[in-house]
What we know:
Strand order of the largest sheet: 3-2-4-7-1-8-11-10-9
Oligomer: single chain
CATH topology: Peroxisomal Thiolase, Chain A, domain 1
Protein name: Thiolase family protein
CATH class: Alpha Beta
Radius of gyration: 20 Å
Distance between the termini: 16 Å
Pfam family, one: Thiolase_C_1
CATH architecture: 3-Layer(aba) Sandwich
InterPro entries: Thiolase (IPR002155), Thiolase-like (IPR016039), Thiolase_C_2 (IPR055140)
Strand content: 15-25%
Number of domains: 1
Helix content: 25-40%
Largest sheet: 9 strands, mixed
Order of helices and strands: EHEHEHEHHHEEEHEHEHHHHEE
CATH superfamily: Thiolase/Chalcone synthase
Organism: Amycolatopsis acididurans
Structural class: alpha/beta
Amino acid sequence: xxxxxxxxxxxxxxxxxxxxxxxxxxxxxxxxxxxxxxxxxxxxxxxxxxxxxxxxxxxxxxxxxxxxxxxxxxxxxxxxxxxxxxxxxxxxxxxxxxxxxxxxxxxxxxxxxxxxxxxxxxxxxxxxxxxxxxxxxxxxxxxxxxxxxxxxxxxxxxxxxxxxxxxxxxxxxxxxxxxxxxxxxxxxxxxxxxxxxxxxxxxxxxxxxxxxxxxxxxxxxxxxxxxxxxxxxxxxxxxxxxxxxxxxxxxxxxxxxxxxxxxxxxxxxxxxxxxxxxxxxxxxxxxxxxxxxxxxxxxxxxxxxxxxxxxxxxxxxxxxxxxxxxxxxxxxxxxxxxxxxxxxxxxxxxxxxxxxxxxxxxxxxxxxxxxxxxxxxxxxxxxxxxxxxxxxxxxxxx
Length: 398
């Protein structure tokens, strides 16, 4: 069923900080600067922003401390330090961090709880080895996996990736097309960590695997960065400087079957993802064939194959063939630009921000030299199809 708030709220402006491996200042300081830049970009003054929303999941694992304003930035912290007095402040804590935050902002505006909402994501990358295991003992669910070496996200994604390769006769050579496309586009974006650093298929295939068949380049690199957007009602957005981009629909997902935390069988991913996609298209009142700007989440490269199939953009078991021969080349008129914004593999680990930002830039006509002249409907995905969500955006309020 189509959402009652479909196309009634729009993105009116944005800002993005540089993306670095490690920043030389507290995350809160960068967040304040980026938030103020987004508000100015929307043609507003800080005192006009009466809503602040985020999903402040601390994006790391191990023995690191989450300190508000330094290593994470909650909505309450930013609201206190932004110099405004918002009447709506919220942080999303469920599944699908970016889609969930968008949902909070849209519902607040539609309900009249706020007029202009600042939505942001602030990512911190602590020093030290990423996802190092400091455990000296395992309890709870991890007692069944960690002692056997099944620990961390690489083991988690290697399981369904191997299943897909074996079931459909796919290969790492086919995955090279995903990495090359993501890095090609990320290399064109000034704030990207990989700016000016494209990747060849040969370089990707020469990389040794860490947890077979996953290699280091199949994973987005942990970074520090902040992105912010200003959302308001469709009516108010039309009077602001930039072309509005409307939020048409959204949906989030959960696995159908209860599993151990890192146990992600392929059937779980595809089954729950397909159900979520059906809700997504119904909420926006569009069909997969109408989407000309699908921005697929790629925190791990196999996610691109999984999203292609669960969204109905290609048949089941065909994604590994679909990505080859230029089918996802954003430079081709007939290519499906699933990574035209570089994604996580082409920008750095900004969660679902690259996907949301590319939808906004293209649909508002602000993508510069990368502008796609016919972009009309986009979808921004985040996380795995069975443990994340997606948002449909439109250039027109249909």
